What we know:
disordered N terminus, two-stranded antiparallel sheet, single chain, 16 helices
Amino acid sequence: MSDMNRRDFIRAGVASGAAVSVVGCEPAEDVRSVSESGTPFSIPEFRLEELTIEDLGSGLNAGHWTCRALTEMYLERIEALDRQGPSLYSILEVNPDALSIADGLDRELRGGRRRGPLHGIPIVLKDNIDTADRMTTTAGSTALRGSTPLRDAYIADKLREAGAILLGKANMSEWAGFKSFQRGTSGWSGRGWDGGRGGLCKNPYALDRTPGGSSAGSGAATAANLAAAAIGTETDGSIVGPSSRNCLVGLKPTIGLMSRGGIIPIAHSQDSAGPMARSVRDVAIMLGTMTGVDERDPLTTPSLGNSVTDYSSFCDPAGLGGARIGVARGYMGSDERVDRLLEDALDVMRAEGATILDPIELPEELRFGNEHEMEVLYHEFKADLNNYLQSLGPDAPIRSLEELIDYNEQSADLELSLFGQDLLIAAQERGPLTDQRYITALSTSHRLSREEGIDRVMQAQQIDAIVGPTSGIPAPGDYTGSSSASGGGCSTPAAMAGYPNMTVPMGFLFGLPVGMSLFGRAWTEGTLIRVAYAYEQATNHRRPPRFLPAVEARVP
């Protein structure tokens, strides 16, 4: 498999972008929007637009609304924007029990019980996160149509315990993007051909642009205020990429901080779920809710003593004072306009009291994926997916990767008319996790990204966080695979290391959002939140989308 093909998989998740031939500018006001059919539409006013988790909780406490009223307002918003109007296709299905769950949480409030900051807050989950309810979990594939897991994913259960309302399942790149190098588009769900529930997810900032992947629906829905926040998953770039392209904050935690139990996998050495929200504080609130040790995920055991249940305590507006920030300049250079935004961000951090160490050098092999990472993913995908499918019980629609490949061939009109399955086939050809080929690849991956990479440079210069561009300008989103074009991105080092990576909005180009990544050593989520929060408060780049039919570009 060629180096270009390997890079394409990573770029589809995090680094996609597109060149635009004119200088970036702010969008004009009062642009008329049209639907897919060409019919003009308007976006209805929304009482909850841009409200934070704390805002929503305060409104509940003050009696401005009930849990049921909150849920109804978000459901109405989904109906108005996801299948009508701009037709975002960001939500695959809503929870048919959402309102009854909200009623129960209202009864608790009336009885004087509030479970915490997420009590009554509607959250959407990516469609690869198990829920043992009347929703299904399919990873966006028709192969798992109707699949209902036997139990909740660990993090879904923790969210329920905290009082969150699991409002629905978000659209995603099918099998989290691990299906084909030959053709592929971020945010496309094969399940969309079954009843029109999925299809190609759109970017609410410009409907002709990709929202990124693979957590496309989680990003687009949160940006469009279809829910208070969302949970995504990442193997390499699938949380931070869509967060960047949707003007969100997204956090991919250290492997083991959040359990992968009950999440449809790619690779256990790199997979992680994480929060995606419109503010750093909301991400911090959600993160602490989902930590803990799970017997289904042995890598969560080291989180004891390395995690907390309230990361919002790290939200310090003076958090950049005295911070030492290393610049991963080797991940710049793909687009000079994105680079200028990052230079502006560095100036802000200097002004806020940070010391900027520029540049820091990471191994060249960590750029945009490599054969070591891909070999790990192939082997672990086969082993981990087979284990997951077998956990579904005797009624599972498919029970192995081999059966998945056969299903796709037999259902080519649904699953192979647009995209191939070369990644699935390559994974099926791999041996067990005892193969020396896999053992060597994993050891090399960790050595390059940890001992010779992030750990080395951060320890040598006492760095608190490393900064780089999260992604390029969002590319055109269509069925041709053009949304995998490169625009830069620095997700791979932290992905291969299993270390935390956080993105925060750093500005706009042509009205399209672009994010800045902060990553570091294992278990340093608190430090990243502290730095990101201070930067967010100093810049306030977040603004809601306007659902423009196409990207606006005009010479100033």
